[in-house]
Write a structure and sequence with these properties.
Oligomer: single chain
Helix content: 40-55%
Radius of gyration: 20 Å
CATH superfamily of the largest domain: P-loop containing nucleotide triphosphate hydrolases
Structural class: alpha/beta
Shape: globular
Order of helices and strands: EHEHEHEHHHHHEHHHHEH
CATH architecture of the largest domain: 3-Layer(aba) Sandwich
Length: about 300
């Protein structure tokens, strides 16, 4: 086994593809620990709808950056990078291999690459855009973003007000497109050996898994979980698939069957965006449903020896 550098095994892929199960098996095989890069699993109040590892799974392998925040906490990708780097610095003093797993592309990026130096925008500037959101609606902000930064308008989730406002505030404040700050940081870090393992399942298999997962979430009590969070539904952490649709159900805008179908459809769309992001990575060892986890582990062994 190489000894010149520490090793980070990065497991990526769309939601419901099997990343969690694989990461646990890989961590067990290499006696390593898992760092989550799933931004929804940070929040201790979000459990069923985020498909977190079970309590048993969390007890068998040390997981980090799961249940580490509350939905009321102010958290950024920059803070995540800082905390993960602090963890890795200490962890690698006594361990050779760590596992990074998740479907949040931006959070993966800042660990394998670094974070772009995006200028800080004054709080007052953001508050003006939040006021505009309340008065004129999200579509108005999206139109404005298209004018000042067509690339961001094309690539970000225009239904996510936090993402739209972030791109717009930087573009307007700096008079440079927000997308221009994300072009010069494509080199992978050199201080750690990186090994990329990715799931790229057939659409039929992935969509079937998504549907089954959503049905299981409902069966396991997702509606009650969302009910308990009703007072916080305006928080950005809850503007996410599985929660926002059920808030519409609780508000009687949809019946339950309609909400469930909407969750499934929005999850499929989310999985497409995830794969679009991850397909930009080079040197990924991609696997489909014809390859089992043991075969993937054997491949990893060959890669790091």
């Amino acid at each position: 086994m190489k000894i010149n550098k520490k090793k980070l095994i990065v497991i990526i892929g769309p939601t419901a593809s099997g990343k969690t199960d694989l990461a646990i098996k890989v961590a067990s095989e290499f006696k390593s620990e898992i760092i989550s890069a799933d931004s929804r699993q940070f929040y201790k109040e979000l459990n069923i709808g985020t498909a977190k590892p079970s309590k048993y799974e969390l007890s068998t392998i040390n997981h980090h950056f799961i249940n580490n925040l509350s939905i009321i906490d102010d958290y950024t990708v920059g803070k995540y990078k800082e905390e993960v780097e602090e963890f890795l610095e200490e962890y690698f003093k006594s361990n050779d291999i760590a596992i990074l797993v998740g479907g949040s592309g931006l959070f993966i990026d800042v660990i394998i690459k670094g974070i772009d130096n995006v200028p800080k925008v004054p709080k007052e500037f953001r508050e003006e855009l939040n006021d505009s959101l309340k008065i004129n609606g999200l579509s108005s902000l999206a139109i404005n973003l298209k004018e000042v930064d067509p690339e961001s308008h094309e690539n970000i989730d225009l239904k996510n007000p936090h993402r739209v406002i972030r791109a717009l505030e930087v573009s307007l404040y700096t008079k440079k497109p927000y997308s221009s700050y994300h072009k010069g940081n494509n080199d992978l870090r050199k201080d750690i050996d990186l090994y990329f393992i990715g799931y790229n399942l057939s659409k039929e298999i992935l969509y079937s898994r998504i549907d089954k997962r959503v049905d299981l979430m409902i069966e396991n009590g997702l509606v009650d979980e969302v009910k308990r969070l009703t007072d916080y539904k305006k928080l950005n952490a809850l503007n996410t698939v599985g929660y926002k649709e059920l808030f519409h159900f609780l508000n009687q805008d949809l019946n339950l069957d309609e909400a469930i179908e909407l969750i499934k459809g929005n999850t499929r769309k989310y999985s497409k965006r995830q794969m679009t992001w991850f397909k930009k990575y080079n040197d990924v060892n991609w696997f489909d449903e014809s390859i089992n986890d043991n075969q993937i582990i054997n491949k990893i062994k060959k890669l790091i020896i």
